[in-house]
Amino acid sequence: MAIKFEQTQHNARIVSVGAYRPKRVVPNSEIVDKIDSSDEWIVQRTGIRTRHYAAPDESLIDMTTKASEIALERANLTGKDLDSVIFSTISYPYQTPSAATELLIRLGNESAAAFDISAACAGFSYAIGLANDMIRNGSAKNVLVVGAERLSDFTDPYDRATSFIFADGAGAAIVSASETQGIGPTIWGSNPENREAIMTRPSWLEFKDAEKLKAKLEAGEKVWPDIQQEGQKVFRWAVYSIAPIGNQAIAAAGISANDLSAFIPHQANERIIDTLAKSMELPDNVIIARDIQDTGNTSAASIPLAMDRLLAENPELHGKLALLIGFGAGLVYAGQVVELP
Fold it and tell me: Is 52 a catalytic residue?
């Protein structure tokens, strides 16, 4: 016997965005001595000049609460109006329960659906796709989508490949039911054969063997898991594989690149951003988010932070179309065209 229910189809759009950057600004000059490098080398390699680190007593949830409250206020909603929270992060320090449920407590909601996703730098675009599908299928009306990271906890300051890249921050967006459709189909997928190109090592299981852990500490070996990256492999993958995903997302939305007003990619590396824009043949009038320069790579928080800044600096973009693309550890990717709030 088939399930019987009244199937409805709703529209969805991003109605607001909120962002939070920690107060502590860390210039390249604070990093270069530990990796025998220079400010010029980091800027040429990535475009990053400064990044933000959370205060010692400032948790991932502290940052996320602030970003979420801004997004809720801009949407004229309260935490109690939420049907669901989708929290994208790779740096919540507990395996379970979820960061989303801790955030719900802060927002005064005692019953909304809440779950985390681990899609690293593609996490926000993954979550936007999920929220869109939930609303279109009638299982939610207001969804809080969060991308937040405290990557300073998982960055080796002596690693020449990663120490200058990662940073902290939180971004949030409210996705709600709408009269018109403001989110295009999500084009997503993965390249798992190269998943080890970005990976935290060692495994948490290393902490179960006390004697082994003690021996490593006495030998001066690395014991705390931190993010390790094969930079050249990731760069080549992003440059050659992600542009076609952007083009597919544009086509799936039923528009052309000429209809776009903005391009908001994951803020991984300014050279990657420029190459993607060129490969997709985006028109010169498309405004490109470059939050990477003074925010660094905040993984899942990257796109909402960049979106918030882009709208603040270019208010004419409100209500216009933007292409979002996230890509990172997994190797995973996701992209969609959205109407900006």
Answer: no
